[in-house]
């Protein structure tokens, strides 16, 4: 990919947090939600699952776009690997509470799959960001209040590190953005694989 192309990013994700991370980093991504059925994807483990889903989301949007060499499509998917299980978003409040009863005082690994594809070049780059998350040993009352806030119902792993959930995460090992939903240092490296500088995506 040459440097004389006017690149812009299409984010194949409904996640407001992902869009906000990009915007804060100088990148105004156009959002196109793929609406793919994530349940059809089988994968051996959390790492493979989030990568396959990120790839599926990006490719679904890429297939809808005109062949513009400047468009790069980014798909992401986040899951928590905990105690041999894969936690996406909880099905309901009961599941969120049950998860926290298991997670409190222990740690899990938040995996976020990233897939970038160029429309005309057909080039693509993908990787999984992993961040270890150490949860506080919170009380039953705190779990009940957190679930009642509804925050944990819409996020992978039933927790956030930048919302109410921040009070319940002792520390992390790795990129915080990766937990929120998109790792910018990882995106930079994927773009380099495609001969694109992340600075080329910065708003003027
Ligand atoms: N703000 C915030 N959001 C989080 C955090 N952890 C996970 N999430 C969100 O949880 C959601 C994970 O579900 P995904 O299936 O990856 O993404 P989605 O929101 O369903 O959106 P799509 O990409 O369109 O599927 C994403 O929106 C993440 O941004 C966190 O610590 N903070």
Automatic annotation (TrEMBL):
The active site is at 77 (proton acceptor). The keyword Hydrolase applies. Its EC number is 3.6.1.9. Its main location: cytoplasm. Gene3D superfamilies: 3.90.950.10. Belongs to the Maf family. It is found in: Cytoplasm. Keywords: Cytoplasm, Hydrolase, Nucleotide metabolism. One of its GO terms (molecular function) is hydrolase activity. Nucleoside triphosphate pyrophosphatase. May have a dual role in cell division arrest and in preventing the incorporation of modified nucleotides into cellular nucleic acids. This is Nucleoside triphosphate pyrophosphatase. It comes from Paractinoplanes globisporus. It comes from the Bacteria. Its cofactor is a divalent metal cation. InterPro entries: ITPase-like_fam (IPR029001), Maf-like (IPR003697). It holds the Pfam family Maf. It catalyses: a 2'-deoxyribonucleoside 5'-triphosphate + H2O = a 2'-deoxyribonucleoside 5'-phosphate + diphosphate + H(+); a ribonucleoside 5'-triphosphate + H2O = a ribonucleoside 5'-phosphate + diphosphate + H(+).
